[in-house]
Amino acid sequence: MIEELEDETGAIIKYKRHANGRGLVSPSARVAETAFIDATAYVEAHARVGLDSWVGAGSWIDKGATVGDRTFVGSNVHVGEGCVVGSGVRIGSNTKLGADVMVGNGVRVDRDQQIAAGTVIEPKGGATSRAALAAMSRPVRPQARRAA
């Protein structure tokens, strides 16, 4: 069932409720069935949330953002437009990631943080490259099979 809400500019935005947690998800967003989206959380247009991820109360995954598999997004977190958050990441409550922030696999972001737009946070030892993080945000196209 599609619900319509009015944003601060008066525009009507359509959302559907995610089966696991009942959060509001844009019809163009891709959210794994095993992800949990709290009933008071939003996932905007063209955003992606991976397998077994958790998006807490009052959190907002902005347009085109990607949240990797097994990632925990605490309550009242804003993941900015175009952000790429890797797998196994933990983002504490009341944190704001600016637009186009990249967070590497396994990184922990403490609560009550503000991360400036365009920042790249790599895990200790730099195991995640910028190219690998950027690849997470691009759609995967099926490979053509070659004739044997």
TrEMBL record:
Transferase found in the keyword field: yes
Gene Ontology MF terms: transferase activity
Coiled coil: none
Keyword annotations: Repeat, Transferase
Name this protein carries in UniProt: Transferase
Origin species: Leifsonia tongyongensis
